[in-house]
Structure to design on (89 residues):
């Protein structure tokens, strides 16, 4: 999770606002469950990320499971954004 990447910073800010957690607590190693984000909350956050960034996050990817970390979530969204920009460039 490259915190100096503007896209990553935007994703972290968005997640922080959506789940009501201070962004200083959103470290790459932190499991989302430790932040009080239930599996249902994670699904809702993924839907909101899709809407906000105009991407589609596959159901069978790295965000499927109980051990999702903040880094996994942010990096996956950043990769999808980069791929999308590559298609439109």
């Amino acid at each position: 999770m490259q915190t100096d990447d503007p896209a990553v910073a935007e994703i972290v800010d968005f997640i922080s606002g959506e789940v009501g957690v201070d962004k200083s607590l959103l470290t790459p190693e932190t499991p989302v469950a430790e932040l009080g984000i239930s599996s249902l909350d994670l699904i809702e956050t993924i839907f909101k990320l899709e809407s906000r960034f105009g991407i589609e996050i596959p159901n069978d990817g790295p965000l499927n499971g109980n051990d999702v970390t903040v880094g996994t979530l942010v990096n996956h969204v950043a990769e999808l954004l980069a791929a999308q920009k590559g298609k439109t460039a």
User: Anything to note?
Assistant: The mean pLDDT is 86. DSSP finds three helices and no strands in the chain. The helical segments are 6-19, 39-53, 70-88. The CA atoms of residues 14 and 52 lie 9 Å apart.
